[in-house]
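Fresh eyes needed here. Have a critical look at this protein's tokenised backbone.
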Amino acid sequence: MVPTLKVNPLALRLGELLKQRIVKLDSKNWAKSGGDQMRLEMLTTIDAMRPGEVAMLENIRFSKDEEGNKGTLAEELANLADIFVLDGFAVSHRADASVVGVAKYLPVFAGLLMETEVKALSKVLQRPRKPLVAIIGGIKAETKIPVIKNLLKKSNYILIGGGIVSTYLYALGFKIGSSVVDKKYAKEILQYCKNKKVIKPLDVVVGDIKGKKYWVKDLDKNFKITDKNLAIYDIGPKTIHEFSKIIKKAKTIVWNGAMGYFEQHPYENATYSIARLVATRSKGPAFGVVGGGETLLSLEAVKMSEYVDHISTGGGAMLEFLSGKKLPGVKVIS
């Protein structure tokens, strides 16, 4: 068990919100070495609770049987309850004991958050108002390729930024300095980015990692970065202008992944511009869905989160849902 990952602070905060004491159940790591005494103590504590009281278990990821739904963990969890409400969309892409295992032993229902997530993302995939514009950025090409592949069939435009752009340029044979490249998936990125629906940047911001020197370079046949101390850290102003014209026409928008290394000034311009555009278009002319840790941070930075129709709590789960996969956690509530 990792002390800093214990749920004690969560129990305290939940107690503040509910204005009552939260009963913390010491489930430790559910190891068999804990013996029947630990399990008996938990059951005794639960039996002694009054209607309206709330109990919280220890971090379930401490159990080696959680991942992959191994051992008897799911059955033990089910023994503590009468019904199972699955509200963790962010873990719904995992076939773990606390996600799918418990559902085998108890009546299962979707929580309010899970219901909201599935409805919002289904709206993007199944009945989007057109034009549908997808904005895909971030570093990992591996997780974005299935999304691009699936959304190509449904979107009018897919705007790309981040590591996907540098990987695409690498696949075309350009010299790109120390830019982030996912070489393993370069051929696939090249294949999908050749589609006319995928709108590539017209220019990029090249510089050093600390942002002390930087400049805008057009993406033409003469583009190259030979200095290994330099890299592509953002998309450029021409691209922002072109993307903005497309976003302003959208009726449905889905965005996942930053356009560049926005944590370092001055490489935040494109990501913040996209954040403002998406938020401005949402909750009115368009239905906007945004997800991914970095993407949400950028919305918070420009103080525009409240203007987006749906903020997804799922990073990997959102991407897998948008790629068309049937998530294990969604299956059990269907």
